[in-house]
């Protein structure tokens, strides 16, 4: 059941010295835009979780990331924040096209991460679209897809648009994200993913997050990761 991946984390009651967020730094201490900080604050996100604290300093510098942390540890903010910040810093605008693609293994998970993206991007001007529709929606998606700056999609649907949507231009892509990367890199998606990757520019930032560490040399080679930061938290569990 893909929804089980959305189990909430322990409540942040341990914001004291010895709790799960001990020693945490706050989102408002990060070198990120006021717009992003405001969105986070309004959604009551104050203290970073371990994976956020470990990865954001690197991802915000433009480095490739291989992040592993168990379900419920807050991986979604760990990649949506650098995506939004990168496009903001590049002054990405409506005419710049697709700046980021976030791939999720299931429609349900894609929908959930889209909701988080809306929080982070609330005070930004980018357009983002969820490309996961059923058969009926594909034509509606096709009309809109070339106006979108951030695509949140499942592998199959993204590939369908790459094949069938004439205006979809990914040549300016800045950041590629694979959420639940271990599932996306799994055999079932191998063909689709290879076809997608072959159509993306190699010069880009790539962020991989999953519940387990992916270190397959072959996988990393086909994703053209550049000197990635391996980050693993909650090793003991
Ligand atoms: P994962 O992708 O690692 O399974 P999610 O990104 O789905 O985890 O986050 C799990 C839950 O934790 C969500 O309900 C989210 O709102 C909450 N969460 C994430 N980051 C924080 C944070 N810094 N402070 C409080 N709650 C958070
Ligand atoms: Mg997740």
From TrEMBL:
DEAD-box RNA helicase Q domain segment(s): 25-53
Q: Which domain of life is it from?
A: Eukaryota
Instruction: Give the Helicase ATP-binding domain ranges.
Output: 56-231
Where is the motif named Q motif mapped on this chain? 25-53
Region of interest (Disordered), residue spans:
1-26
Into which family does the record put it?
A: Belongs to the DEAD box helicase family.
Q: What does this protein do?
A: RNA helicase.
Notes on the domains = The Q motif is unique to and characteristic of the DEAD box family of RNA helicases and controls ATP binding and hydrolysis.
Name assigned to this protein: ATP-dependent RNA helicase
Organism, per UniProt? Answer: Cephalotus follicularis (Albany pitcher plant)
Species classification: Eukaryota, Viridiplantae, Streptophyta, Embryophyta, Tracheophyta
């Amino acid at each position: 059941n893909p929804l089980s991946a959305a189990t909430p984390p322990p409540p942040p009651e341990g914001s004291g010295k010895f709790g799960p967020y001990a020693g945490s730094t706050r989102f408002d201490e990060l070198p990120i835009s006021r717009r992003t900080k405001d969105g986070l604050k309004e959604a009551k996100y104050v203290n970073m979780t371990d994976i956020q604290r470990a990865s954001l300093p690197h991802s915000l510098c433009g480095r490739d990331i291989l992040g592993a942390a168990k379900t419920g540890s807050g991986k979604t903010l760990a990649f949506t924040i650098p995506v939004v910040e990168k496009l903001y810093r590049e002054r990405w605008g409506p005419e710049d096209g697709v700046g980021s693609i976030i791939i999720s293994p299931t429609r349900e998970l894609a929908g959930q991460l889209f909701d988080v993206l809306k929080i982070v991007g609330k005070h930004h001007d980018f357009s983002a679209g969820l490309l996961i529709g059923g058969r009926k929606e594909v034509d509606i998606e096709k009309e809109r897809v070339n106006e979108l700056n951030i695509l949140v999609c499942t592998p199959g649907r993204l590939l369908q648009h790459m094949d069938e949507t004439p205006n979809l231009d990914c040549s300016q892509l800045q950041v590629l994200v694979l959420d639940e990367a271990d599932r996306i890199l799994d055999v079932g998606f191998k063909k689709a993913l290879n076809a997608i990757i072959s159509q993306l520019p190699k010069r880009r930032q790539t962020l991989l997050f999953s519940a387990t560490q992916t270190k397959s040399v072959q996988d990393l080679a086909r994703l053209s990761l550049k000197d990635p930061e391996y980050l693993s938290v909650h090793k003991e569990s």
